[in-house]
């Protein structure tokens, strides 16, 4: 018998087949060769069942029925991809062994584990664990397949993550929604991330700007001119600042201190996913999800970068040879000049800025591969360019500077000058010309000190020096009014940085590295979390800035007032993520973690149950069927994205919560997205019937223009519009259509004024398409 290889996606399966079975027969959903059958999942083929799979009473949202804590979690097939799941089962019957070739990470492990569970696969399993999809890596991976037992702990962590998210998401969302009569989505990761945004906005609103005055003076000595800023107590009186500026102008002073020391600036760390997303946001304005999608395409489709969903900025000794080969590859093509000028001897196993095996967990940093890119889109080229230039920078020496610090005293006033003199660009030659420092132009940079005053730093490629023993002449002076600035609103880039360190404001990179395994979410899921906050109407984007909606603000305030601060605690949730990491390494138990999650779930329900309901206008009009007229009403665009399915779901991995909706379900998506503004009573919409679409476990709810399925995001395209050939479809008619397949006999008017008797028939249970059947 043959070996069945299960990849995560079709492109990956075909790429693997081209290496291990180049003569394989290409079937629609699998390839078969002499020794291997290669097939694939399509992301998540299975997911955790909805609450009503455990008891039909859960179809209605009722706080009295909470908490919902299954003894055993059920899994259900995704109706959109159930045929592929069935195909995998049929192919497995012809195989004596199986290779798990899903993505080499926690979620890839989970995808395979659910397939194995659902199909009851009993064959021995090997694990393909590779970091890129080049032919060389695939061949090497199959030559060294690992035993599946090595990854049992990773599977335990993946299950714990999914089930914990389900417990918190399902229970907390239902509790807060039913208690406060508004669709509120609550999640183990998304809620503390929302709390980060909320806290920053509160800081901004509470900030009171203070006016102060800065005095600057220009000094000359032996043909050298430099600028200094007055040191000392903050000046809050304009007259005093003006008096100081006037008193030093034209006067002679002396240098009280002069230091000049050489410094080196080494290349920035290689990219992990979060760092790549942050820089792409800062440079190109790309959202985190967009950068992830582009990087995934560069990995899966073009095969020009290594596995992107990594949290490491380093490589192992085994990667060094490959990096040298990639450098040689780059000597032909658009990066030839930079690659030829590189110094291969700088990248070696003892260079801890590159090679640090202790900081490589599942995957090394993102690297370009030994495959030349073909035609890339502009966005793909931008991300590839970032990765290649960061890679090349490590083959160059450090940039070298001479840091000059001068303290000048005139008329008993001290002025400080900082000058950074360029000695050698070093690795910075790999930066695009627009990013290289314009040395020699007298460019000034400023940084804030603890008193909110600015320290000026000048950059120059010209020689700079002063003679402390000689006097200086103050040639010019001025004073300027300044104001202390509030904290900045989060961008996706700065929020990713905060998520990585569980909200701690840590600038030291080594300390930030230490926090990586206790951050909010993982590199693979952070983008999906941000997208979710947008989709449920908690935040909107104004350019790059994130803005909290009234609904988002009220949600955090209600959660905190309920006494379940843990739900909003970035540090505590970060510790949960750390515990999941420990489970994946066999250092902690899944059962103990889940027991704690269940206890916390029950405490949430107990506290929300006794909370006073929110006022009717607390969320803005989009969450209250148009009743809210308060602040935040203008956020309607984001608010309409809240759906019953959105609230009912726990946060998913990026593959689930950020997947695109199929074209066949666009009509259902359009209908359900506006449903939150449709009910006169607002709040929770009662399910009217079970969705008749084959294999779908969703519920039919009423929207503004029609009746649609709550599982539209999973691909269900069922929708019945409220008007059909002039007849209004009532909820009674809807139930009759779904339960009996037709309405009662109705009278229809013809254009000539005559009438005809007919029934409305549910022609297609998958789409909700109707037809009329004439009755004699």
From TrEMBL:
CDD domains noted in UniProt: TOP1Ac, TOPRIM_TopoIA_TopoIII
Biased composition (Polar residues): 666-681
Domain Topo IA-type catalytic: 151-605
Claim: Hydrolase is one of the keywords in the record: no
EC number: 5.6.2.1
Keyword Signal attributed: no
Keyword annotations from UniProtKB, A to Z: DNA-binding, Isomerase, Magnesium, Metal-binding, Topoisomerase
Residues of the Toprim domain: 2-134
InterPro entries the record matches: Topo_IA, Topo_IA_2, Topo_IA_AS, Topo_IA_cen, Topo_IA_cen_sub1, Topo_IA_cen_sub2, Topo_IA_cen_sub3, Topo_IA_core_domain
UniProt catalytic activity: ATP-independent breakage of single-stranded DNA, followed by passage and rejoining
Low complexity composition bias: residue spans: 635-646, 653-665
Region (Disordered) residue spans: 434-468, 615-686
Family, per entry: Belongs to the type IA topoisomerase family.
Protein name from the UniProt record: DNA topoisomerase
Organism, scientific name: Paenibacillus illinoisensis
Lineage: Bacteria, Bacillati, Bacillota, Bacilli, Bacillales
